[in-house]
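Sanity check

After download, print the first record. It should look like this:
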Amino acid sequence: NVSFEIELTIGEGEEQEIVLFTPADILSATLVEQVDPISLTLPISELNFKVYTTDPRFGIYAENEFSQSLTLRLPVRLYLTYQLQRFLMGTYYLDSWKSPAHYRYEFKAVDTIGLMDSITYDGSYWANDTSLQLVLADVLEPGGISFSISDELAEFKLRGFLPPGTLRESIQQIALAAGSIVLCYGDKSIYLEPVKLPYRGEPAIYTISDEERLEQQEINIKQIITDIEVNSHEYVGQNERIETIFQNYLEPGEYKIRFTKPYYNIEVTGIGYPQDNLATEDGFWLITEDGIELIVSEEYVYGPNYIYLYVYEPGGEVTITGYPMVEYRQTYSFRESGLSPYQTANSIKIENATLVNTSIASNVLALLRDYYRQRYEQKARTIESYMITPEDELLVKFHPGEVARISATDGKFIRGAIEQIDYDLAGGMLTKLRIVGVEDGN
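Expected structure tokens:
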């Protein structure tokens, strides 16, 4: 017997409030977990639930601190009770809520990847080969996201430019270049491990038997990808062409000016001063709270990919110039063999993955080629199963990204990676799987 509870955490410290929705309150609840094994995208997993409550604090017109805090990315924790023991199944973050009817409320919460989509990143440039561990630390730690990587990725190195964007966009670029999948592990935490491709012989860790399936469902054959192109990116300094990066009149206030591509020998003229609380005794090296080194040149504070300044009254003109790094691109291409002359072109181009350099571009191309050769998509309806270990830990059977073997039609099997799991939490844990892979015999 399995039941679920959903907990909202509002506020912090002594002001913290816990709102618990029990099965009696929950009208419906679904959880969709999804991954992209090759990290061309970073899908967001969602917890959607509807509740009935007469708690006046949830009133849509309530003008109080409680209702206002519901606009923030509040932690939403999903608990499962199994064999009279309660287990934390996952932590999500409130994305939106509404009241379609009196006393009825609908909530949508997202996973850590969804949270990262709301956090900006200024971008950076790594001129030399830098370990994946250090690159991830540079990107994630200022945003309050923790991470870990598998041992196989410990020696992997990256170099290149990462443009400004969100943390989600930045980690997608890093994961694609590193040939890794991104998984959400714990509260505000992600885990990277190498891609598992059934086409390359990745074994299944379990078989989903006919007895575990509720019914036979369709198997889809994906379209052939006929052509794949990947651009590599290398950056070289030059002293011939200077660019005006920014030029404008700035009113008094604080500014952070980010660069959309890498520059060096940057010069700034105009009005602007670093805030007093940023300066050290020698006025030269600064360390921010997130640990990033800043260099002060005269009246400005320089970061890895931006300039920070404070403009006093009455404001003034600021001009930033610099020498752009010259970007050299090289195209790596693949065309599937044995195509019919009547085959419609179906191409994929990866043009702006700026961390894909000449050292790794051929590996990225091969990864894409082998992933898209996995053309069988099997869907299945089943029931999630659980086991409690001697250490009182709950183990669930299905996990996104894992490779499973499942019976298809005509006595055949499909061995593929689980790319999506849909749970009906309030409907007896009915589970829908989407598995993409290759034929695996009888």
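If your output differs, re-run the checksum step. Summary of this record's structure: The two ends are 35 Å apart (CA to CA).
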